[in-house]
């Protein structure tokens, strides 16, 4: 297990951890949360032995193999598949030893190494590496391409694939979904759920945290707090803890006020001096409780657009692509003033191409685009972060957009994005990716667009900023089209989906769960097409009848296996629905101020205890429900 005991650490004179203790058991999947700069990445550096604590102890089993994603990828001539295989250090060492044994004509040594190679599944390693790369969006023809030919975002995926290839006991992942699209995120989420080792995951994607982790470590105010359950359970538990803290704080403030009032009235009276001194000492000994606060540092919203033509855009029989090569064809789309579209589709199908087409960045190859009078497009894409002037401040970027606005108005606006005080005047060059993304969003919002085109807007943004952006987009009065791997954002700010696939952009009748099923069906179809035929078209009638008989038998066996699984799923769903209802009632009770009165202390304790029991049972039921659905999907795939 991983153990931190009374650990303290400072960096650059700033204390990050003070006497923290933590135990992580083998097999746990732990999500790390906390504000930017709270110490999440520093904790990873401690675990990788790149930093050492000032005081206290950190213990990790010496036999554990640790894997993490490298921050840089050199421009190597190595083929991508070989680069990923390098993640399995033991495999590579055996391969080198085999070459040496063959050169020395040492048959005994070769036999030993081949046996070891078989034990670690070495003969299937290339297939496993290829499967990892396919899951992360690499096509077959990319497997042999040199690493140097890939862009920065694709090299990050290669680093991730290399880390996953390692047969590790401990896997450290720091924002692994930042450069992934939704398809790859869904695949990675499934992979992490079945990962057999201990996982520590820093992520600002609440869906990933909800679906993968079973514990949350929250870092706040130089302390580490461990919570059981996923991110939703953490939010519930933390809200209850903060409510208790606030109630205790308010009670203590009343006690302090009473003591101070007594001291003020009687310290000058000889008959009461001793009692006054006693109360002064009581005040000095009192351990002060801090007021609870969970305020977001970000507060902003979209001003109402000056004009809102309807329709804003009309796309008729448009083809789009690059260098004469079509990516999309026969696109017909009318964007009304209230449109709120999420774009879905496999990696490389043309989602970003469609966004660029609508933004006017990419001219159509054929067809016509009609623009509404007064159209004001706000287009956000990751490359715009690189277009920020590194020597300019956040304030100067905003002043360049609107030279007539007062400095105070601009500073008040930019402060809502976390650029307060002198931070608004500092050059952009040393800003983190998240800070640059916040600035790019601020510049876009200031221009009051009536059509927002957002291509992965949440990359690099932390949970607080994602929440603030989600709230702002919910109140936005214009039209919205968004590409995002953040399912929470898609669910809460869009009303309908457009599926971009096979060169078309068409309405998708379903939700994100239906899209996951669609992806699985596409993958199953691809596997069926790739699989060799058991019998050719020239088989005789007897062979065809036998084949049909076997298929019918398999379907019957699958149906027999499915029935008890489906019955168990229905029972689980009934129980989960009942628990969710009880949980909602408890949350409503905890939202009532009187529950924290002294008279209700026992009732509060029982309510919080029951809330924890429900969260724990729901976690177990949901895990079983997911496992059963995986079994049902596997049966359907083989049906």
The average pLDDT value, as a whole number, equals: 83
Largest sheet: 6 strands, mixed
Q: Which blocks of ≥5 consecutive residues have pLDDT under 50?
A: 533-539
Number of strands: 18
Neighbour order of strands in the largest sheet:
5-6-7-3-8-9
Strand fraction: 15-25%
Number of H- or I-type helical stretches: 20
Ends apart, CA distance between termini: 42 Å
- Helical proportion, percent range: 40-55%
Q: Rg to the nearest angstrom?
A: 29 Å
**Per the principal axes of the C-alpha atoms, what is the gross shape?**
globular
Structural class: alpha/beta
List key phrases describing it:
639 residues, alpha/beta, six-stranded mixed beta sheet, globular
Fold and architecture overview:
This protein is 48% helix and 18% strand. It is an alpha/beta fold and 639 residues long. The model is unreliable at 533-539 (pLDDT under 50). The chain has a 6-stranded mixed sheet, sandwiched between helices. A 6-stranded mixed sheet has the order 14-15-16-12-17-18, sandwiched between helices. Strands 2-1-4 form a 3-stranded antiparallel sheet, with helices on one face.
